[in-house]
């Protein structure tokens, strides 16, 4: 087993290397003194980070993307968890049709969904708004949440819930005390999915964004004609550092705090 | 309080200036979707909201340096003077933008930084054009005549847009592998030179590719007689090709990383590469292609506000800042305006202000063939 | 499905209550707009690019009979299938590791998977040129090590399209498998081991079958997303490496032929929906796996 385990560990390492290769390129290039990235780099510089902070447009787009992603992930995960519960825990007519409907948003090519929704809104004479953009993101992140939560729920044994119910807990208590903790990893995965997909979406956002609203991807898209400024690479680096360094730091702090508590006792 | 009452109160607050337009429309949209109600009061209110607020101008253009230059040099002074806010948006390509405009309500989009005469005619064909009152745009007198004359016949002598900048789509080559003399001797044929098989790039855009294929078959691009020869040439090019590129950023990285040695290329992008020290040559071959960009006013826009903004955007200082940002010369006539030191060094720049040496798409000709050619090219590109 | 039979006597409102937010949103923002697409597919495009209201079967005739569309469709399904299988094979390993490794950093490992998404899709897809390009890192290392004398041309073919897709889809696969592995009761594998199974047998007989829901969900996601992609072939493909969504995008955006684009997308939609129906039946059958417990 230990040989097999070594192989698994090595395989995992390779996969992570593959996943990070483009990220590493972007991070390295953000320290490049030159505007056009090519290796070997001719000099190191922090100028793109300075430029990033001073670039209102990118900073604003970044804030928009964060807010949009956070709202999307909360709404979409809530809807998705409820729907997944219904799909796994109950029997009802038309179930297969509904499960297709729930996954449908990723079956339609995004550009079609984008145009179709605009046509519908034009027919209603409803103007584009941030709320619409948000709901658009919710719609096509929903299938991710439903799929991942459903897969987890199928694996959770019904006995636990029934035991809780038979011990006198009501349905909500059972959900809160038993089901939710058991499916928590899937819920978190769903939130993570919906946030990142929303954060990274281009096609739908291009069509649905109201005037004056730009997300990071749409900013990048508009820069493509002339050249993507390396500030975008710097933004990638900042994002990565925050998402990796902060959890690491948090974990380290937590360990220290708990260590102190044990020693203090 | 029922839904309609609530919305009416919302509208009232909005008119009093308690909430700004964006959040008002947002709330309206939310209310409408939340209630799931179609037509009726919603339609009415949305319409009122837009009519009650003619004094905002929506501009859409390229992002990055271009939008920064516009914002700083044109939009802010304009808003300061007139009190009319400019809402600016961006797009990644002219086609994508047109698709959005086609799906929008009239008046939602106002001014756009569009490419060339071809799109001008396309918008006119889709009944999206307007008639500018040229007296309201004094800076129009500084603009190169020839650029405006390209638009006038399409819209019956009037203008629906002001020209803004121009450039060429010539041939870029890696000087390590192609000398200036070789490039000059071969001209357009360089792009189908079998010696560079697997090292050739091309813009995946039907008009430009057909233009160059016409040159390669010895025909006048604005009056092709043997279309079959052109399609064959396009297939020949495709089989020698490494990659169709789709954006300036992609073009630059393909050249800079030496993935490709020759390609057709936008003048300003090659200039940017040269400035960064890459040894890339640029050639406008005989019969090479030039294009212009314009600021187009879309049907349903508040005309006077748009005309005034156009005048701001045509100010020499603004034009020059944008030109230096994207490396394409402005549409201002160099015999009438001092364009500073950088602009005259830009590729495609014409000091005479006549543009007689440049060839543009004949809009009528290309628009007539658009439907068939663009579709056929899409197939050739994918291996047919 | 399972044990809810006892709860579901007569009409049960609870599932509908749970489903209503999602269903209302999908209905309003997807199903109703999709009706527009159906209507559009019977219209025609005018010479200028406007839509002509009519009833015509021309688009459908073209979409269903033209071998060009058929070929691209087959190519699309092939590329999506290859990418999905690659993801499943490659993705199982890290999913297994994260689920079973004695590490406190599970959450971190999972979050790390989504890390590439912080760098925008276009940027990270384009950055492969710095890794696999003729002057990229891989060629650089091989030249330096003396393995090759000339840089190898690796980019812009079907392999790089698959590579780009796998890079994009892998996190979805890994997370789905992980979630399913993590939900498996450990006592089951222990029991299998104590009954004399080798580690491999325990995996094959217990763990693998129980992780099938995750594998299936991940595969469905990967296949569907892979089949609907258009940016990856645009950035990493050579001439001829187009996928079906590129045709849809071109019809709608470049050619402004919305009627034809509608018909094309409905065709893709129909195929993928059929796949989902198969999947939901498959997941239903998979309930047998639960009798293992």
TrEMBL record, chain A:
Annotated ABC transmembrane type-1 domain residues: 62-250
Keyword Transport attached: yes
Entries under InterPro entries matching the protein: Bact_Polyamine_Transport, MetI-like, MetI-like_sf
Keyword Transcription: no
Source taxon at top rank: Bacteria
One Pfam family recorded for the sequence: BPD_transp_1
Signal peptide: none
Segments traversing the membrane: 12-31, 66-88, 100-124, 130-149, 180-199, 232-254
Topological relation to the membrane, as annotated: Multi-pass membrane protein
One CC-aspect GO term: plasma membrane
Keywords assigned by UniProt, alphabetized: Cell membrane, Membrane, Transmembrane, Transmembrane helix, Transport
Places the protein is found: Cell membrane
Single GO BP term: transmembrane transport
Family: Belongs to the binding-protein-dependent transport system permease family. CysTW subfamily.
Protein name, per record: Spermidine/putrescine transport system permease protein
Protein species of origin: Rhodospira trueperi
TrEMBL record, chain B:
InterPro entries referenced in this protein's UniProt entry, alphabetically: SBP, TAT_signal, TAT_signal_bac_arc
Keyword S-adenosyl-L-methionine tagged: no
Source organism (scientific name): Rhodospira trueperi
One Pfam short name: SBP_bac_8
Keywords for the protein's UniProt record, in alphabetical order: Signal
Protein name (record): Spermidine/putrescine transport system substrate-binding protein
Gene3D superfamilies according to UniProt: Periplasmic binding protein-like II
Automatic annotation (TrEMBL), chain C:
Keyword Transmembrane helix tagged: yes
Transmembrane segments: 16-43, 79-99, 105-123, 128-147, 159-179, 210-231, 263-283
Record-level GO BP terms: transmembrane transport
Broad class of the protein's primary localization: membrane
Gene3D superfamilies: MetI-like (1.10.3720.10)
Domain named ABC transmembrane type-1: residues: 73-279
Localization of this protein: Cell membrane
GO cellular component assignments: plasma membrane
Bilayer topology annotation: Multi-pass membrane protein
Keywords: Cell membrane, Membrane, Transmembrane, Transmembrane helix, Transport
Matches recorded under InterPro entries: MetI-like, MetI-like_sf
UniProt family annotation: Belongs to the binding-protein-dependent transport system permease family. CysTW subfamily.
The protein's name: Spermidine/putrescine transport system permease protein
């Amino acid at each position: 087993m230990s040989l097999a385990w070594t192989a698994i560990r090595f395989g995992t390492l390779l996969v992570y290397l593959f996943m990070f290769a483009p990220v590493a390129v972007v991070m390295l290039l953000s320290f490049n003194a030159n505007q056009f990235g090519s290796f070997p780099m001719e000099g190191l510089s922090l100028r793109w980070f300075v430029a990033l902070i001073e670039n209102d447009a990118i900073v604003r787009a970044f804030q928009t993307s964060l807010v949009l992603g956070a709202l999307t992930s909360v709404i979409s995960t809530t809807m998705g968890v409820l729907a997944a519960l219904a799909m796994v825990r109950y029997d009802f007519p038309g179930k297969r049709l509904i499960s297709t409907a729930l996954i449908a948003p990723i079956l339609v090519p995004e550009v079609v969904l984008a145009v179709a929704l605009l046509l519908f809104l034009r027919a209603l004479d409803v103007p584009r708004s941030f709320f619409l953009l948000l709901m658009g993101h919710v719609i096509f992140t929903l299938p991710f949440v439903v799929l991942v939560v459903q897969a987890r729920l199928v694996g959770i044994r019904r006995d636990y819930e029934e035991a809780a119910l038979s011990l006198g807990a009501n349905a909500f208590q059972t959900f809160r005390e038993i089901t939710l903790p058991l499916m928590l990893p899937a819920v978190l995965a769903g939130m993570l999915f919906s946030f990142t997909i929303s954060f990274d979406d281009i096609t739908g956002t291009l069509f649905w964004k109201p005037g004056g609203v730009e997300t990071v991807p749409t900013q990048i898209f508009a820069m493509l004609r002339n050249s993507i400024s390396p500030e975008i690479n710097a933004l990638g680096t900042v994002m990565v550092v925050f998402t990796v360094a902060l959890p690491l730091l948090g974990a380290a702090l937590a360990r220290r705090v708990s260590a102190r508590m044990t020693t203090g006792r | 309080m029922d839904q309609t009452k609530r919305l009416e109160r919302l509208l009232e607050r909005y008119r009093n200036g308690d909430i700004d337009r964006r959040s008002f429309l947002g709330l309206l949209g939310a209310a409408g979707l939340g209630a799931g109600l179609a037509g009726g009061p919603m339609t009415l209110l949305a319409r009122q909201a837009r009519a009650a607020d003619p004094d905002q101008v929506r501009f859409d253009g390229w992002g990055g340096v271009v939008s920064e230059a516009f914002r700083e040099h044109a939009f802010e002074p304009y808003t300061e003077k007139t009190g009319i806010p400019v809402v600016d948006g961006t797009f990644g390509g002219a086609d994508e933008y047109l698709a959005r405009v086609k799906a929008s309500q009239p008046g939602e989009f106002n001014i756009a930084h569009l490419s060339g005469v071809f799109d001008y005619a396309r918008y006119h064909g889709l009944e999206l054009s307007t008639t500018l009152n040229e007296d309201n745009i004094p800076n129009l007198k500084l603009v190169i005549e020839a650029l405006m004359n390209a638009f006038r016949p399409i819209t019956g002598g009037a203008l629906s847009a002001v020209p803004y900048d121009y450039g060429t789509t010539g041939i870029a080559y890696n000087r390590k592998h192609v000398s200036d003399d070789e490039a000059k001797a071969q001209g357009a044929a360089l792009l189908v030179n079998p010696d560079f098989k697997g090292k050739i790039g091309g813009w995946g855009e039907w008009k430009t590719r057909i233009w160059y294929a016409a040159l390669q078959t010895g025909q006048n691009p604005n009056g092709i007689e043997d279309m079959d020869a052109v399609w064959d040439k396009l297939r020949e090019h495709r089989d020698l090709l490494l990659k169709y590129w789709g954006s300036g950023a992609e073009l630059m990285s393909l050249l800079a990383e030496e993935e490709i040695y020759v390609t057709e290329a936008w003048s300003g992008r090659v200039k940017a590469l040269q400035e960064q020290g890459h040894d890339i040559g640029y050639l406008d071959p005989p019969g090479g292609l030039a294009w212009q960009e314009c600021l187009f006013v879309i049907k349903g826009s508040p005309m006077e506000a748009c005309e005034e903004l156009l005048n701001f955007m045509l100010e020499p200082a603004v034009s020059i800042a944008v030109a230096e940002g994207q490396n394409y010369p402005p549409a201002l006539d160099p015999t009438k305006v001092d364009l500073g030191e950088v602009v005259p060094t830009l590729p495609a720049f014409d000091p005479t202000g006549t543009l007689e040496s440049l060839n543009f798409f004949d809009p009528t000709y290309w628009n007539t063939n658009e439907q068939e050619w663009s579709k056929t090219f899409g197939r050739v590109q994918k291996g047919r | 499905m399972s044990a809810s039979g006892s709860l579901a006597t007569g009409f049960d409102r609870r599932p509908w209550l749970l489903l209503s937010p999602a269903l209302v949103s999908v209905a309003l923002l997807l199903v109703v707009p999709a009706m527009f697409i159906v209507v559009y597919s019977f219209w025609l495009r005018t010479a200028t690019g406007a839509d002509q209201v009519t009833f015509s079967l021309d688009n459908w005739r073209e979409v269903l009979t033209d071998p060009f569309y058929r070929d691209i469709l087959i190519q699309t399904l092939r590329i999506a299938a290859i990418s999905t299988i690659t993801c499943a094979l490659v993705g199982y390993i890290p999913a297994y590791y994260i689920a079973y490794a004695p590490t406190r950093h599970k959450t971190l490992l999972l979050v790390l998977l989504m890390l590439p998404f912080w760098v925008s899709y276009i940027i990270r897809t384009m950055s492969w040129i710095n890794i696999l390009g003729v002057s990229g890192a891989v060629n650089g290392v091989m030249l330096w090590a003396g393995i090759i004398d000339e840089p190898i041309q690796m980019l812009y073919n079907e392999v790089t399209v698959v590579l780009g897709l796998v890079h994009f889809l892998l996190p979805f696969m890994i997370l789905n498998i992980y979630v399913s592995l993590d939900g498996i009761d450990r006592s089951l594998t222990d029991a299998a081991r104590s009954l004399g199974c080798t580690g491999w047998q325990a995996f094959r007989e217990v763990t693998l079958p129980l992780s099938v829901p995750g594998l299936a969900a991940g595969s469905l996601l990967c296949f569907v997303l892979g089949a609907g992609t258009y940016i990856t072939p645009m950035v990493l493909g050579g001439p001829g490496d187009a996928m079906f969504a590129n045709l849809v995008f071109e019809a709608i955006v470049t050619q402004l032929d919305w009627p034809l684009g509608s018909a094309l997308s409905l065709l893709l939609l129909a195929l993928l929906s059929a796949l989902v129906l198969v999947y939901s039946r498959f997941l239903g059958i998979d309930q047998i796996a639960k009798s293992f417990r």
